[in-house]
Amino acid sequence: MKKWIALLSALLLTLCCAAAESPDAGHTATLSLDANPSTGYAWTGLVLSGDAVQLDSAEGAFIPDDQSGTLAGAGGQTQYAVTAVKPGSSILTFDYRRSWEDTALEQRVYLAVVDQALNLTMTDMTETGVFEGTVLSLDEANHTALLEQDTLGEILAQFSPEMGLPALDAQIVIYTDGTMALSLPARMNVLAWRSLPSADAAEEADAASFAEITN
Q1: Within this chain, do residues 150 and 102 fall inside the same structural domain, yes or no?
Q2: Which pLDDT band holds residue 19 (cuts at 50, 70, 90)?
Q3: Which residues, 6 or more positions from 148, have their beta carbon under 8 angstroms from its beta carbon?
Q4: Beta-sheet pairing, 144-149 with 130-139
Q5: What's the whole-model pTM score?
Q6: Do 100 and 48 reside in the same domain of the chain?
Q7: Is residue 66 included in any domain, yes or no?
Q8: Mean of the pLDDT values across residues 184-203?
């Protein structure tokens, strides 16, 4: 009987150790973004592409600068926990806007890279790898799109084979790896992209928001 108890204890210890070493127990990074809910603005987080990481929530957790709670309208930090799930990469976007508005006052973009040991590296791509432009032409064979961008002129956007291509004449935002091939036009590798609402759609949304506020 004692022998069976010893074997069972050893088996349970082995199972506990295996669970502790599970790859689900990935590393976590904390992102802190300046915020002030009293203005009506709030952050909304999204894993735009890739399944290497996950967010704790879309809203995050607001931590006020004034811990006493006596200062009305005080700002603080919205914090997000980003957890590594599997090796690979993901693009995360954070929009600071009012709930009834389509246009963000501010947007932050991060590239999350997870290695085989589930170590997590976060890189701020907001200034270096985000471009907005209009689709001028498509090359489905090479999976590229030629974009017109206000600052750089024409950009040749290279999409990965598993991505869908945007529509012709669409206004889009591309999230790149921050590198640019020295060619004409400039060539960039797209990690993720999203469509922007047309001018007509934006005007309709603004009108609907105004009607909702005034009614």
Answers
A1: no
A2: very low
A3: 133, 134, 136, 154, 155
A4: antiparallel
A5: 0.63
A6: yes
A7: yes
A8: 77
Q: What is the pLDDT of residues 90-99, one digit of tens each?
A: 889 899 999 8
* Distance of alpha carbon 139 from the chain centroid: 27
**CB-count burial class (<10 Å; 0-12, 13-18, 19+) for 116:** exposed
Distance CA 181, CA 156 (A): 10
Domain presence at residue 200? no
Pairing of strands 171-176, 130-139: antiparallel
Compare 55 and 208 and report the one with higher pLDDT.
55
β-pairing, 120-124 vs 186-195, is unpaired
> Do 75 and 145 share a domain, yes or no?
no
Strands (E), 60-185: 61-64, 76-84, 88-98, 106-114, 120-124, 130-139, 144-149, 153-158, 171-176
Same domain, 96 and 179: no
Q: Could you tell me the maximum CA-CA distance found in the chain, to the nearest angstrom?
A: 80
Q: Please choose, from the candidates 81, 99, 91, the residue with its C-alpha nearest in 3D space to the C-alpha of residue 43.
A: 99
CA distance 53 to 83: 5
CATH of the domain at 100: 2.60.40.2020
Domain that holds residue 161: 130-195
78's tokens:
């919205």
Residue 149 sits in the same domain as residue 186: yes
